[in-house]
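Reproducibility note. Readers wishing to regenerate the assembly model reported in the main text can use the exact inputs given here. Chain order matters: entities are listed in the order in which they were concatenated for prediction.
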Amino acid sequence: MSDSMEPAEVKRTEALSAEIFTNIANKWALLIINTLGEGTMRFTELCAAVEGVSHKMLAQTLRILERDGVVNRLVHPTVPPRVDYSLTDAGLMLRTTVNAMCVWTRQHVHHIDQARQRFDERQV
Amino acid sequence: MSDSMEPAEVKRTEALSAEIFTNIANKWALLIINTLGEGTMRFTELCAAVEGVSHKMLAQTLRILERDGVVNRLVHPTVPPRVDYSLTDAGLMLRTTVNAMCVWTRQHVHHIDQARQRFDERQV
DNA sequence: TGAGAGAGGAACCTCGAGGTGACCAAGCAG
DNA sequence: CTGCTTGGTCACCTCGAGGTTCCTCTCTCA
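Running the prediction on these inputs yields the following structure tokens for the assembly.
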């Protein structure tokens, strides 16, 4: 971030950051980014690969991610249509941190399971 | 993850992971974890520090995070009550990845802003 | 006497996230 | 001529996320 920004510009940037964060810090977006990190996929493939997503949410989330320059959308003008989705460079960088979150989850499943049991006992 | 797990155990672990991921991959949880990474805070401090959160959502999210062993809750038996929140060790590790996401957002604001303009022009 | 302070809990209400299913376009196989 | 294909969009409906407001508990200070 440049230090030579006007206050108005700074404010806009912050608002933008908050909005972007809201777009990304969301279950489906994160799962899609993580799945797409494994390579280019088509719509239907993605729909099957992302556990539990509906085609509506997938389409909706993909458009948001495409708009934010995280996902590339390549349409082949064939019939029936064929659309390839992949991560942009920015998306790939983001994917490494998302992946770290997934790794953290897997590493701490056991710890969390125990923490929950302790917590639930305390409540009765 | 041990490789000597029974299928049922593996399945349970996966379900648990999905649940944990859903708990954490959520705007408020991530913002709280990130904010709390800067140090111990009290409820009201946190409520002010996390932009836009209501006290209900804060309380709700904090309980989930506490149950999952991500957040420590320390009650001082004084009057009026005083409660300190901080991250556990697991929470601190998670925080580094969450923080990476925030850094990514700030680094790519400009890029995303441009991507959006291009996208919006194309649609008309 | 009564107001205020800190950390919530409970009740109530609204609005939008998200699921489901129908529909479409365009060409090819049968 | 029909139906299947893929990648969506649209309309409809439901349910729960989340906001708002009021309550509480105990002590202190005015």
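We highlight two features of this model. Residues 54, 56-57, 60, 78-81 of chain B lie near DNA strand D (CB under 10 Å from a C1'). Residues 52 and 71 of chain B are 20 Å apart (CA to CA).
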